[in-house]
Design a protein that fits this description.
By secondary structure, this protein is of the alpha+beta class. It folds into 3 domains: 49 residues, Uridine Diphospho-n-acetylenolpyruvylglucosamine Reductase, domain 2 (2-Layer Sandwich), CATH 3.30.43; 117 residues, Uridine Diphospho-n-acetylenolpyruvylglucosamine Reductase, domain 3 (2-Layer Sandwich); 119 residues, Enolase-like, domain 1, CATH 3.30.390.50. The strands form 3 sheets. It has a 5-stranded antiparallel sheet. Strands 12-11-10-9-13 form a 5-stranded mixed sheet, sandwiched between helices. Strands 1-3-2 form a 3-stranded parallel sheet, with helices on one face. Helix 5 runs antiparallel to helix 9 and helix 11 packs antiparallel against helix 12. The two termini are 31 Å apart.
Length: 340
């Protein structure tokens, strides 16, 4: 049996109290939201905080609130609540679909949007027990100096595996954080670093408290596609979020595709809008040709590595397949694309 390391749990009731506790305990403290990822990682001795600052009792961090600018989502809002939220399903379908495909029902009932955004990078050489990692001499990300993914590699390539983030990037979302020095807002696109050890631009003691979605464009369509071994529980072998904006005649005015589970940060596919803009979504041949261009660019740009479980050559072959399916699902409003 894997046991949790000994630690204290602090239960603030306000966001300011949570920030104060993090400042008080410094590097000895960690935040815990739903705990669906942190608790297993603590059992594997990947993290051993002396103090856990729980956000479970901070009610101000929960809920979906419509604003003049769009929608604000509290970071502690559960994934299951978001997956069934009628406002999100109608206006931000890719996000609602993405969170609906995270793990299984029990974990979505506990897991939160903020927790998914802040998810630690994953690697099949890292997300193992202490005994397993020790037998291999550990790795760059934790306790060692060797990369088992890239021979001789000097930079960690553990993969971002957040299902929600590609959808948030296609939507132009912003993240609102509060820390000892006050509050700041950062575009979700600018939040990431190409470093598998620490892949987020987070200042010490900061708490993500709101995910802010702008109003979608008229004619907005979106979808999320997820490749995984099983129809539930698994992290993505590949995640694809697609956005397509149409005018009243069904002509594409803008588009975007973002992919996750490849490297330390989500990957935006280049030239998507250039390929799709001006193409009629009702013209089967023209739209298919434009999508083929996007798929070709995705295949060129995306290079899966053996950093997460699953054959990386198979994952590479699935990139254009899932990009095509997800773009088509977005236009058809056909719902999420996933492997069963």
């Amino acid at each position: 049996m894997l046991r949790l390391p000994t630690c204290e749990v602090a239960n603030p009731r306000t966001l300011d109290q949570a920030v104060a506790l993090l400042a008080e305990h410094g590097d000895a403290a960690m935040l815990i939201a739903g705990g669906t990822d942190l608790v297993p990682n603590m059992k594997h001795r990947l993290f051993e905080p002396r103090v856990l600052v729980s956000l479970a009792g901070v009610d101000e961090l929960r809920g979906v609130r419509e604003t003049d600018a769009g929608v604000d989502i509290g970071a502690m809002t559960t994934l299951s609540d978001l997956a069934t939220d009628e406002l999100l399903i109608e206006r931000y379908p890719a996000l609602a679909q993405a969170v609906s495909l995270v793990a299984g029902p029990q974990l979505r009932n506990m897991g939160t949007l903020g927790g998914n955004v802040m998810l630690d990078t994953r690697c099949q050489w890292y997300n193992q027990t202490y005994f397993w990692r020790k037998s291999l001499g550990f790795c760059l990300k934790k306790d060692g100096d060797t990369c088992h993914v890239v021979k001789g590699g000097s930079k960690c390539v553990a993969a971002a595996s957040n299902d929600s983030v590609p959808a948030l990037m296609t939507l132009g979302a912003e993240l609102v954080l509060r820390g000892p020095d006050g509050e700041r807002t950062v575009a979700v696109d600018d939040f990431w670093r190409a470093d598998g050890i620490v892949n987020k631009h987070v200042e010490p003691g900061e708490v993500l408290h709101t995910i802010r979605l702008p109003k979608p464009a008229a004619g907005h369509r979106g979808a999320y596609g997820k490749l995984r071994d099983r129809g539930s529980i698994d992290f993505p072998l590949l995640g694809v979020a697609a956005r397509v904006d149409l005018d009243d005649a069904g002509v594409v005015t803008d588009g975007d595709v973002v992919v996750t589970a490849l490297q330390a940060r989500p990957v935006r596919i280049k030239k998507v809008a250039d390929s799709l803009r001006g193409v009629s979504s009702t013209s089967t041949e023209d739209f298919a040709a434009a999508v083929d261009d996007v798929c070709a660019q995705a295949a060129k740009q995306c290079k899966p590595m053996p950093n997460i479980p699953g054959d990386h050559d198979y994952r590479r072959a699935m990139v254009p397949v899932y990009v095509r399916r997800t773009l088509r699902a977005a236009v058809d409003q056909a719902g999420p694309v996933h492997h069963l």
